[in-house]
Each structure stands twice: as structure tokens, then as C-alpha cells.
């Protein structure tokens, strides 16, 4: 099966006002209730379903564990 | 009396090499399956129900436009962030193996009651190389107890081609929704 790296540009939200590509972090989706476009400072309210937040928290925790275990040495 | 392998606790050398390799391959397969399940749980509703098309999970956004009206649009959650995927890059096994030669006696067949074969078969004796893992010798008591060092290197995995296509499709949905924002879905405050 052909594998490759995903395009970075494909992720994120294009600002409806200025077309700036707004990048999200997992914590943005978990914690924030609104997002501000860095290009035009348009404020957008976000409604992230609760179960999705649980999944995002799981990923965050997994990433944290990977970071910790990557420096683990006996 | 037990003979051969049973008497020494040794096993075939290939089995010793095969066991950790099988474990790593199985771990990689399990990892892929769990990632797939996670993506489906995370990105879709009702994906495990037969006869139903899975629905994309969406995140809704709303903002007030220049005319003071609230515009609402939604995007698939899969298009918003890049999911981290891990895979096993390489696995190093450091094992100390002691090889021994084992004589394996063939079972003696009971003598035939028929007198058709007068030659008496002597029991055959075969030699085979067998091996067993030995503890590594060190002053450290912990390492003496172990007999294999395993180091797995994990890297950010490449995405399977299908998921890349799916994400590319998400990007297109993103654009379509952007175009719709200007025309429809206006809510009066």
C-alpha cells in the first residue's frame, strides 16, 4: 500500500473573511470556545461535540506519554 | 525418560529468533488496527452499524459578518487537525544464545512377529543444534535476570494512502462549505 506524509496545508480552517489558513492544536479544540483568525482577527465561536473532546484528550495524553517515554532510559 | 529437547530445556534456534520478530509484527498490526478504529471513532458517527453510511463528525463555527448577521458553518473534524500516527521504525534485539548439540534417539520399533525381515534395525541417533537464551552477565543484578534486551524505535508514521485521500476529500469539503457561507445559512439574531 502506498504511504506518504499528509499535506500540512490540508489541515485547518480557511478564514471565511480573509482566506487565512487557521491552524488548530488539539488543545484549541478541547479548551477554547472561540477562535480568532490571526489574519483579520475575526472571532468565530466553536461548537465541538463532547465526545470529540474526549477523543482529543485521549490523543493529547497519548502524545504526552510518547514524549515522556521517548526520553526514558534504564 | 524424556530425551532431546525436554532434557535440556533447549529449543530450536529459529524459534528463539522467530518469537520476538513475531511479537513485533503482531504489535505493529495491532497498532494499525487500533489507529484505524480510533480514526473511525473520532471522525465518524455510526460507522460500526451495518447498512448505514457513516456520518462525518462536524465542528460548528459561527461568526458575525459585516452586516451584523450570524453565519454558521460546519467542518469535518478530520480536516481540522493532523492526527499523530505512530509506527515501529525498527526493533533491535540483543540476546545471548547458548548453542548446544543434542542427540535425539529415534524410538525403537517393537520387533516384528513375522519372520520376513531378519535384519535387526538399530536405533538411529541424530544430532541437532539446539539453543537457549542465557542471562547476560553483569555486575548489575537486574540485567542478570534478563536475557534479552529489546529496543523499539517509534516514529511518526506515514499515513495509509486511503486516509490521505480521505483527508484530501475533507479539504475539498472545507472549500465547498466556505463557498456556501457567503450564500446560505444565515441566521437572524
Summarize the structure in words.
The complex is a heterodimer of chains A (74) and B (189). Chain A has 74 residues and is an alpha+beta fold. Chain A has helices at residues 26-31, 50-70, and strands spanning 3-4, 13-14, 21-22, 34-36, 43-47. Chain A has one domain (12-70). Chain A is 36% helix and 19% strand. In chain A, the strands form 2 sheets. Chain A has a two-stranded antiparallel ribbon. A two-stranded antiparallel sheet of chain A has the order 4-5. In chain A, strand 2 (13-14) and strand 3 form a beta hairpin. Chain A is elongated, with a radius of gyration of 16 Å. With 189 residues, chain B is α+β, with helices and mostly antiparallel strands. Chain B has one domain (5-106, 122-187). Chain B is built from 4 helices and 11 strands, in the order αβαβββββββαββαβ. Chain B has a 3-stranded antiparallel sheet with strand order 1-8-7. At the A-B interface, strand 1, strand 2, strand 5 and helix 2 of A face helix 2, strand 4, strand 5, strand 10 and helix 4 of B.
Describe the structure concisely.
The complex is a heterodimer of chains A (74) and B (189). By secondary structure, chain A is an alpha+beta fold.
Which percent bin holds the helix content of chain B?
Answer: 25-40%
The class by helix and strand makeup of chain B works out as: alpha+beta
- The span between the termini of chain A is 36 Å
Low-confidence stretches of chain B: 175-189
Average pLDDT of chain A, to the nearest integer?
Answer: 78
Order of helices and strands of chain B: HEHEEEEEEEHEEHE
Order of helices and strands of chain A: EEEHEEH
Total DSSP helices of chain A: 2
List unreliable stretches of 5+ residues of chain A.
1-7
Name the helicity range of chain A: 25-40%
The largest chain-to-chain contact, stated as pair and per-chain residue counts, equals: A-B, 37 and 38 residues
**Strand content of the residues of chain B, in percent?**
25-35%
For the secondary structure, the number of strands of chain B is: 11
From the N-terminal CA to the C-terminal CA of chain B, the straight-line distance is: 90 Å
Tell me, rounded to a whole number, the average pLDDT of chain B: 72
Radius of gyration of chain B (Å) = 32 Å
Largest sheet of chain B: 3 strands, antiparallel
Which strands sit side by side, in order, in the main sheet of chain A? 2-3
Number of domains of chain A: 1
